[in-house]
Amino acid sequence: MPGRDIRTFEALAGWHRTGRWRMSLDLLISETRIALPDAAGLAARMIDHLAEHDIAFEDRDGLMVAKLPFGISSLAVEAEALKIRVEANDKGNLEMLRSVVASHVIEFAGDIAPTIIWSGHESNGGTLANFREVRLKAAITLTPHMRRLTFTGDDIARFVNDDDLHVRLYFPPEGLAKPEWPWPAPDGRILWPEPDRRPVTRYYTIRRIDLQSREIDIDFVVHDHAGPGSAFAVNATAGAICGMAGPLGRGIRPARWVLLAGDETALPAIARILETLPATATGEAFIEVADRPEEVPLVAPAGVAIRWLHREGRPAGTTQLLVDAVKAVRWPHHQDVFAWIACEAQALKALRNHLRDERKLSRDQVLAVAYWSLRQP
After folding, report:
1. Which of 1, 3, 5 lies closest to 369 in space, CA to CA?
2. What is the pLDDT confidence band of residue 164, given thresholds at 50, 70 and 90?
């Protein structure tokens, strides 16, 4: 698609609104006590910032507790110190939580350089626990503008989850004899290779995963103004290496009636969601693509209608097709509904406003994420 991927806190807030962090009896815990001259002020700034991204802290007798992406975080202000505890159900999620916390503390500390030392379950260096190196095994063309790449890798069971549809792919610069990947720092932050060796990241949907054959299928939209993912899909040959981390969740909440809407960048996710809906599900799915040759076969419950919207030569991101289609939907009389939307940023904004302001859907009834932006930031 024109423009580039949206890489903001939406990836985290989108997870948070699904409410699908799964509690485990075997929680992993890390704690830190950070000396700060204005711990209370920093904590307040952090909490306000996270609230802007739909992550709220609950005050439990002075202990501020929040369900964040990948787990739970709590913080307490002591005399010139901030005590933080993070809990997660696996090491990869714990690392991500520590990274979110440490990055925000350092950002809001300004000119102060806080010392962050974690105790409890710690990283042992090397690569991230939720990271895997994968190799391209095969590629096929699905439509004129979509290719399916099949990757193979070891220990990929963590990616098998219908609630967590997505992964983060890392594309290394061309010409490196050996790719270099991010790693966890002792203070919890994620550190990266130097710019000339740093991989570029983009988010994609796992379309199919087979543990027996160790295969993962991912569908790529390819276009004239190729970004790193599109260029990789077009040019990579068997054996090409990239990184994969996750999974990340942007699934749907169970409901009697569902609305799915997106452009071709969301088509792999919509296809996978449709396949996992119960046979009794009802609803509508709107998918905007360039033209009829871009349609792909979809498997859906009988009660879910699939509507293809064709731009017919108009550039992606320049039409009102998706917005108009959603605004014209005939909603059911009951309130057990859920809307999942993923598309270009401006269309996304219009659709989210419509669902909240005109349809009066609550936050837990809508998951709307900008997958890309026509406008350059």
Report:
1. 5
2. confident
The DSSP line for 75-120 is: EEEETTEEEEEEEESSHHHHHHHHHHHHHHHHHHHTT-------EE
Phi, psi of 370 (to 5 degrees): -80, 120
Query: For the chain, how are helix, strand and coil distributed in percent, rounded to 5?
Result: 25, 35, 40
Q: Which residue has the higher pLDDT, 295 or 223?
A: 295
How many of the other CB atoms lie within 10 Å of CB of 147?
20
70: left (phi over 0), alpha (psi -120 to 50) or beta: left
Residue whose C-alpha is closest to residue 335's, from 266, 276, 256: 256
The DSSP result for 13-81, as a single string, is HHHHHHT-PPP-SS-EEEEEEEE-TTHHHHHHHHHHHHHTTT---EEETTEEEEEETTEEEEEEEETTE
What is the distance in angstroms between the CA of the first residue and the CA of the last residue of the chain?
Answer: 15
Q: What would the pLDDT profile of 317-369 be if each residue is shown by its tens digit? A: 999 999 999 999 999 999 999 999 999 999 999 999 999 999 999 989 999 99
Beta pairing, strands 337-344 & 257-263: parallel
State pLDDT tens for residues 46-64.
999 988 877 889 999 889 9
Closest CA to 316 of 353, 297, 291, 299: 291
Helical axes 91-109 vs 39-51, angle rounded to 10°: 120
Amino acid 269: pLDDT: 96
CA distance 82 to 89: 24
- Euclidean distance between CA atoms 265 and 145, whole angstroms: 11
What would you measure as the largest C-alpha separation in the chain, in angstroms?
A: 65
Token pair of 311, please? Answer: 């731009």
Query: Residue 283's pLDDT is what?
Result: 98
DSSP per-residue string spanning 253-309: ---SEEEEEEEGGGHHHHHHHHHHS-TT-EEEEEEEESSGGG-------TEEEEEEE
Does the structure show a pLDDT above 70 at 1? no
CB atoms under 10 Å from CB of 79, counted, come to 6
Phi first, then psi: give them for residue 203, nearest 5 degrees.
-100, 135
d(CA 73, CA 87): 6
Distance between CA atoms of residues 299 and 241, nearest Å: 31
